[in-house]
Amino acid sequence: MTKASPVGNSESEQQLALLREENRLLREELDEWVVRAGEREKTSKRLQKSELKVLAAETVAQIASVVVNDVGLDDKGIVTLVIHDPERELRRIVESEPPPQAIVGRSVIPMHDLSSLESLLSTPFSPYLETLNPVMLEKFFPGRSGQVKSTLIMPLVQRGVLIGSLNLGGIHADSYTVDMATDVIERLTAIIAVALQNTLNQYRLRQAGLIDPLTTLNNRRFFDQRLVEEFDRAQRTRRPLCCLMIDIDYFKQVNDAYGHQVGDKVLQRVSQAMVEQMRSTDVLARYGGEEFVVLLPETLAVTAMDVAERLRTEVAREVILLDGGGEITITVSIGLSIIDTRNSTQDTPRTLLAYADQALYKAKHGGRNRVER
């Protein structure tokens, strides 16, 4: 009978040891996958709830609130939205929305030019998981870039066009890694893109009937709505409300002498000159023809007079070049009225406007290019 070789036994034991070690490693790997699958399922269910919230959102602020509070794979991470804003209309949209607008300032980043974002993303647009340099970190996580140790930049694409990005900043280096799967969050990103575009389009549709197409200022319909709102607010807060009625001097003569195209150019240049002097709380509108009107909420008469004089001066500085050579300058007459609800209970929104119109009549008959109260 042949005895087993000690060497053979040794080799078998080594093989068994290797198999046991391999099985142990496989079990650990399987356990890790089970944990990951559980975490993935939890994340998927949480993001599905976020999807429903985004779909129910009606404003940019509500979308931003869902993004900031519900999205992200790192509990203490930072989430922001970049939104393409070439016409700088985002501020106007947010101001027209009900609360919570405050969250927008912390989480929504309007970008006039998306070239810096496009430089990160391959075409077709795909997620970016590389480490951002400090300049780009500050661009996508302004004021909080120092906390970000890893990033995931998800492109927001609508009908093949890049409209922004969902930016996830992790506080740990391994929160977002180059080998991680992003499909769980891609669906939510697509829904956010659609929701944002829908919100922007709804705003544009509302504004289409409230904007003067030539000057792009608010029109009379918009002003009439805001006049009632601001008057009611002045009564509640017991704060003064001022109104400026503005008329371009000798505008008919400009049309007669140079034609309506030059007249349109005058209206546009005067509008732009006045826009540059407005505060964010002021309401400027084209009231009709060559007449404009401004509401100055919570403004004392002396301050309103300063605003009116500044408007008059800036318009007078405008030089309008004619296509055939030569140039013209324009002046405006301004009537100012004020209602202090602390001292008056008989006035109405129409009264404020009528007082400004009377003051404008006084300015025009007093020599034009002047402010009267």
Structural features, described:
Strands 6-7-5-10-11 form a five-stranded mixed beta sheet, sandwiched between helices. It has 373 residues and is of the alpha+beta class. It has twelve helices and eleven strands. The protein folds into two domains: 11-206, Beta-Lactamase (2-Layer Sandwich), CATH 3.30.450.40; 220-372, Alpha-Beta Plaits (2-Layer Sandwich), CATH 3.30.70.270. The mean pLDDT is 84. The relative contact order is 0.08.
Q: Mean of residue pLDDT?
A: 84
CATH superfamily of the largest domain, called what? GAF domain
- The strand order across the widest sheet is 6-7-5-10-11
Which residues form runs of ≥5 with pLDDT under 50? none
Beta-strand share of residues: 15-25%
Q: What's the shape?
A: elongated
